[in-house]
Design goal:
mainly alpha; transmembrane helix; two-stranded antiparallel ribbon; membrane; 3 helices
Length: about 100
Amino acid sequence: MRNPVFLAGLAIIFGALTILLLFGDGGTIAGMSSDNFARLAQLTAILLLVSGGVVASRAGPRTHLKSALFWIAVCAALVVGYQMFHADEGSLNIAPSSNAQNV
């Protein structure tokens, strides 16, 4: 038997694709631009995939929390590493300063 979360994700993707093909010629869809609507459909499908994996897994909540904290730490390390190697003048600019100028 197929996983209903997987089928729901496919239905969202194909439904959004159909809506974009029919109505996405530069106008708005549900009050959003076509690009924002496509991004929303994509992120909703990813959310369904991740949540389906969490629900279907037999691990306890503590294991899920440990895994989530691990991935948050990995992402934070990647952001800090990127900022360190691509910051101007060798400084770590994670947050913009109050006197930052728009270029």
